[in-house]
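INFO batch 0412 | record 1 of 1 | parsing
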Amino acid sequence: MLPIRAGVLSGALLFAGAAPLDQAAPTVTVSCKTDVLEAAWSGTDSLECIAKPVLHSPSANLKMSCLAPGGMTCEVHPATMRVTTPPPSSSMNVTVKVTYTPALAGGQSPLEIRASLGDLPASTTVQVVKNLNTVSSRCPGAADLQAIDRDVRLVWRADPTAGTTGCRAAEGSRDLTVMQARVYRALNTMRHLSFTEPLPWTRDPVYRWLTRTVRGLDFRSDVANSSCCSPDKLINIRAVVSPGPSGGQQGFMMAITSSNQMPTDFRMMASFLQLLVHEARHADGKPHTCGPSDQTMEEMGAWGAAHAFQTWIADKMAPGLVPDDLRANLRQQADQICRTRICGGCKAPQDP
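INFO prediction complete | emitting tokens
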């Protein structure tokens, strides 16, 4: 089962407060063991809920149902349970299975769980949160992994996280180390990135451009820096970590497992994906034109492309997908490129 963020037991009667004298009280309450689901691009989650008949509920069928937002489906098991008078148990457990699709909107959407016993139903709402942090935190499923393997050749010559576990085949993914899992999670997120305007140097989606430009990634410990490309069009990734000056580790961000200051949400993925965009732009025939930097933004070289990529994620994605703190961080990273890697200063890039 995919991870669900724990929350306070949530649940409420459909009618709050005491029932009026001329209105019967509801005969069931419903609550769930979490109040938030963190959505993936696709796949399933299971949510445990509890229906609780009141003490003097009549003998009847307890009917359970759910109402999911667009881009999601839900099923309740069991959907019907027989309740006798008095109820044989103080509560009845049900499982809600939800299925995500890429059509689910970003932001927060309500998932309603309903219970009906007699004429007065009850319901509770679980909030479904979808943004770049939630979708990039999930281990890709087997189908997603196979699709990435078809598109990108991954060579694991060095892996500082060897012996660790980042994803598991038993949970519908694949047995992967922490570094491998992060790389696949980042690439799977890149597969789904869609912008409201084309990137300045290509009209292709960024993942399609990347996989058409380079053949894959070679994770190595025998190179001084990451670079593009080897004769077989693999981006050389320096995958090395070392002890940090004040404890923890430093080096390749996707392989660091001991650091209190390194972000592990989409900010880490964005830095890695920016590296791939930068290096793949060299394969497009765009060398640096000002030492290790680019002379202008207009030439849309490796640093210009990296700047645009961060900016497009921050400002040109569908509403709700980019949390405010992530947007601020992406803009900060883009501004740093502007100030330190564009010798002639930055101007806003234009569409192709």
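INFO post-check: The chain has a mean pLDDT of 88.
INFO record closed
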